[in-house]
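[SOLVED] Need 3D model of a two-part complex

Original post:
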Amino acid sequence: MITHFFEDFKTGDAYDFAIPAMSKPEIMAFAAAWDPQPIHVDEEIAEKFQGGIIASGYHTLLVALRPMLATVMAKSANIGGPGMEHIRWLYPVRPGERLQTKVTVANTHASRSKPDRGLVSFDVETVNEAGIKVMTLQFAAMIHRREPAAPA
Amino acid sequence: MITHFFEDFKTGDAYDFAIPAMSKPEIMAFAAAWDPQPIHVDEEIAEKFQGGIIASGYHTLLVALRPMLATVMAKSANIGGPGMEHIRWLYPVRPGERLQTKVTVANTHASRSKPDRGLVSFDVETVNEAGIKVMTLQFAAMIHRREPAAPA
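Solution:
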């Protein structure tokens, strides 16, 4: 059921999500499937390089965005995402850590060429229990309008 | 087994990977788990917005990078990735499409403050069977040196 259209997003709108902790087996299984680098799957090398197994940044990206994608975005008339910018993995994420994600509408731009849609840009900030930023990024979505824009 | 160190990456080094096609059930299952937006999980809305189900950009990101992460990066003394830049989902990826990923070493920077490591930046370009770019991005990794840098 689509309930959110371009007009429903306003600069400054913010959403907060509690992110379920990743267990060590989950971190290692995700990494084995998608990102089998030693710091994510090899206890010995991870200990030496990072003081223990840390989550793949791709895993952190997915768990941290999932609640936004599964709620606000899943109800939106999203045509597609043009991309992401400035993904920063600022601090290691370790097994059992409960993260918090804040998503803010950074800006909205009605399309100049297509009156039926507009681009919404979001800032994402994910922090750990100590309040340390572990990841920041920006993403955007091209979203249908409820009503076509009036001609300028 | 770590065989690749900072010194082993040279600007212009390139790697080519054939990417296994995502089936429609795989696309929908991945999206149900991580990115349940209508264009990825709802046949009717996907048909209207995109002419059919398209892969989540996060799914494309993972399948397109996996061979690089599982080969070159998995053998590297990678301490961690600071992030990604300019992720562009340029063209929809549909079920059954065989993609090709090219990863190029964009540049390497020995760390100024830590003589045991350096930053390697990679350009990634993923194309479909028609040669159309479907995704481009940049990522970086902080990688241990085999031998500490000589003092400047």
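Edit: The CA atoms of residues 10 and 78 of chain B lie 15 Å apart.
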